[in-house]
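Changelog-linked ticket: magnesium ion example.
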Amino acid sequence: MNSPDSSQPTADSPRPKLPWAEIDTVFLDLDGTLLDKHFDDYFWEQHLPMVYAGRHRLPPGQAREELLAIYRSVENTLAWTDLHYWSNRLGLDVCAEKRQVSHLVGIHPHVDSFLTFLNAIGKRPRLVTNAHPEALRIKLDKVPIGHHFAGIICSQEIGLAKEQPEFWPALGQATSYDPARTLFVDDTERVLDSAAAGGLRYLVHIARPSSRQPARFSSRFPSISSFAELLPPTFNNECPRAAAG
Ligand SMILES: [Mg+2]
């Protein structure tokens, strides 16, 4: 499933055929995969710069540039996901600010159907997320999907980000799994590369993490714009709809 594909997938590409009988474990990313990334994009790129500008009496453009430079300095590390790190670094209560705009948290179309389908065929999925436990709490309060999962693993517990290949063997200490019989779905190619290096066999890329952005299909992983593409046609009764936000 994760072999390179020289052709560029399009919205009309055939849906990935997953050999469910050969899959024991399903790991799912949260932000951008199950939930609309619009919330995170809005929070970090618009809301927080606005609050930061007010706190430090900076012009909005300058505040945004300063924050984006700080974000880049910790990209792909565990610090990036740590709300307490950001509260200390920026002198703001980042958890409280997240709650302020939590009405923008939204679930992607067909996710609830896909989670129900997985449980119906006996594959209790596990959430594997870089989201900070506090951010996770805020999101699952707004979008109550926690009951679908056999387990929820935050990168903070592992002490490594999913982008780090060492994450995957370390995950095996927290929850036993056979990488050769595992499906993992994520919207970030760099994370899928790391999972491939960790030996995970069935990898699926989410091409449209944010409802406000066009789909960008992966040329290296089976790539879908909606979980409807992983559902048997007879199972999906959910009407297409825009994610909240
Ligand atoms: Mg993600």
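Closing comment: Example verified and attached. The first helix runs from residue 38 to 56. The two ends are 33 Å apart (CA to CA).
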